[in-house]
Amino acid sequence: MPDRISRRSFTMLGAGLAIGAAASEASADDTKAEAVAKPVEGAFERDYPAPGFKPSWKKPQINRVLVQDFVVYAHSELDMARKLLDKEPALLNATIDWGGGDWESGLGGASHMGRRDIVAFLLDRGARIDMFCAAMMGQIDAVRSFLTLQPHLIDAKGPHGFSLHFHAQVGGKEAENVLDYLQSIKKVELKPNPFLKKPSDPSRPAK
């Protein structure tokens, strides 16, 4: 006849099972969190005729994680943006969809952060400038040309929904002329800009 399990053994066994269950549950939560954090491509099925032109896809696409990392670093870390661009020059104009069609390039990220140093580096490498970047850089002639061509662009939204006014605001003193021009076309309430460098903030390089 098997030995009876002592109360102490039973308690220890129960504690072990509880710890094991908790560990398994924590591991499952971590796995679940990782799964949630990963991008999910929206479901899609054509309800229209497929295009007659069939892409050949002769070259592999740039890895999505590499594009993601480059765009993230281009927001605030010049050295890492340079390192990744040296590693893969095709990242220069690569964009990533953060979800719901919120497309952003490295230049777009640096622009809405007011990082003139990173913007200048990317433009020097041949990045495609847009009106949001031009607004932040104080390029009033370029901004005026865009709005003359299409006045409705005054309401256009850049990455994360940031407006032209926002980009001119984060451009600081060098973009005051653009901000004044935009305000003359459409007056908007200028809320405190979280990315605008404060005079007493030594954490970011001077623009």
Q: How much helicity do the residues have? A: 40-55%
Low-confidence stretches: 9-23, 200-207
Euclidean distance between termini CA atoms: 83 Å
The strand count comes to 2
- Here the CATH topology of the domain at 64-185 equals Serine Threonine Protein Phosphatase 5, Tetratricopeptide repeat
Which structural class fits the helix and strand makeup?
Answer: mainly alpha
Q: Please trace the helix and strand order, writing H or E for each element.
A: HHHEEHHHHHH
The strand order across the widest sheet is: 1-2
Mind telling me the CATH superfamily name of the domain at 64-185?
Answer: Ankyrin repeat-containing domain
Q: What's the overall average pLDDT, rounded?
A: 86
Description:
It is a single chain. The protein has a two-stranded antiparallel sheet. The chain has helices at 7-37, 64-74, 78-87, 106-112, 116-124, 131-137, 140-149, 164-170, 176-185, and strands at residues 95-97, 103-105. The chain has 207 residues and is an all-alpha fold. Helix 2 (64-74) runs antiparallel to helix 3 and helix 6 runs parallel beside helix 8. It is globular and about 45 Å long. It is built from nine helices and two strands.
